[in-house]
Each structure stands twice: as structure tokens, then as C-alpha cells.
Amino acid sequence: MTMDLIFGENLFLVVLGLVWIVGAVMQDLKRREVDNLWNFSLIFFALAYRGFVSVFNGNYWFVLNGFIGLGIFFLLANLFYYSRLFAGGDAKLLMALGTILPLSYDWILNLKIFGLFVLLFFTLGAVYALIWSFFVVFANWSRFVKEFRKQWKNYKKMFLISLIFVLLWAGFVFAISQIEFVFIGLVVLLFPLLFVFVKSVEESCMVKLISPDKVTEGDWLYKDVRVGGKKIKSCWEGVSKFHLRAIRKSRKKILVKQGIPFTVAFLLGFVALLWLIWRGMI
Q1: How confident is the model over 19-74, as pLDDT tens digits?
Q2: Taking a C-beta distance cutoff of 8 angstroms, is the pair 232, 226 a contact?
Q3: Is the pTM of this model over 0.85?
Q4: Residues with Cβ < 8 Å from 13, sequence gap 6 or more?
Q5: Is the CA virtual torsion 28, 253, 243, 206 positive or negative?
Q6: How many other CB atoms sit within 10 Å of the CB of residue 41?
Q7: How far apart are CA 255 and CA 45, in angstroms?
Q8: Cα 132 to Cα 85: distance, rounded to the nearest angstrom
Q9: 211-229: per-residue pLDDT in tens?
Q10: Structural domain boundaries of the chain?
């Protein structure tokens, strides 16, 4: 695969994908949500363009590839959403990118592109999330320290269990003379610290008290709330349209849990993928 894949008939798709991802990032940073219309319009424009090119060239595989990519990424988006890795907006953006990423008529190459994009997305997304978390911690240092001490007391048994495992693992590694396997023990030892860190960031820095008029559809309630004598449960799907109307009629401020604006990871993964193609490294 060469850099030719991002030129010719695919150039419009690449530019379209970049513009829509940047737009999604701007919405996410400003409002912590991405409009459904924005994501679905990417699907419409990408498939419409593919259809026009297919009619013009007399080769309908170009538009069929878009539909196949949409189907594959629809399955991936639902897998990530229902396993609670993605919020709804992220899942829909991933689904929409399925119409963009089939850049080849060779489906072996397309599957490589898909796999590499997902790998880059999660890898760079993890680095980005960690950096974002550090900035959030420094901005809320006193609350974070207080919460970290609380969470450490709650989960210190986890650290002791992991420490016992690491000691046993170290004995096993030295017994079989495979020193390189020590790394596994270090990962197990660091896991409780990482878990407590993430939990502390979530509880001390990501929970906000907002007025009912600022609550939007899909917002995650920090805990169950009572509005107008009815109980609205906190769930992964977030606030529904029905419950949103009830919340906005009330004057009660609501605790919501704000996530990291993860659309940035889409931009990082997409740009990194294009760079690798440009360099002929795929």
C-alpha cells in the first residue's frame, strides 16, 4: 500500500473525515457531547460521494466498500458501546468512519487499515487520557489528594494481594530462569495504583454540580436523583429525552459525571494512520 491511497478518488473522503472529526472534537471540548446529526451527516455525505464516483466510473465497488465498512464499524461500535468502552457519541463517530476508511479495493488491505486505526486509536487515546488526567489532577490537587487517600484505604487490600502474587511470581520466574517474565509481575503490582488513581480522578475531578438547564441528553448522572416525586436512575445510557424534560422543569441542581473528551483520540488515530500511509510504512 502506498500514499496513492489518500489521493485520487479517496482524497475527498480523507478531507471529509478530517473535517468531521475536527468538528466533533470542537463540540466535545465545548459541550462534552457530539450531535447525532453531525455523525450521521458524515455517513450521508461519504456514501453519497461514493455513489456519485461509482456511477461516474462505472465501478460500484467504490460505494459497496463504503457500505461494507459501515457494517463492520457498526458491529465494532456496538461492541465497544455495550462493553462500556465508548459513550454513545464516540460509538456513532466510529460507525461513521467506517464509510471513510475502506481506501482500497483489496479487502485484505482494508482490514489492515481498520485494525491499524483501532490500534492507533486506543494506544494514542490511552496516552492522551493519561496526560489529560494529569492536567485535571493538578487543577484540582487538594480534592484529588483527599480522594486518593480515601480510595487507597478502600482498596489497599488489592495492593496487598497483588504484592503477594508478585512475590510468588518472582520466585517462580527465578526458579525457571526466565527473568524477562518479571515484567508481568511489575504490571500486576502497578495495577492497584493505577486503579486507585483513575478512581480518585473520577470522583474528585470529573463530578460536577450543574443547574438543570445545563443538563443534556446522554449526560451521566453521578447517582440516582428524585425529580417531581419520581426516581431517575443513574445508568450507562445517560439521561433520556423523557427524563431530561422532567429534570429541566425542576430547580434542583444535578450531579453529573463528565468524561474525558475522547474524540481527540479519533483525531490522533486518524492523523497517525494517514501519516503512516504517506510514509509508505503500511
Answers
A1: 999 999 999 888 778 888 999 999 999 999 999 999 998 889 999 999 999 999 99
A2: yes
A3: no
A4: 46, 49, 50, 100, 103
A5: positive
A6: 14
A7: 38
A8: 17
A9: 877 777 777 777 878 777 7
A10: 3-121+261-278, 136-205, 207-257
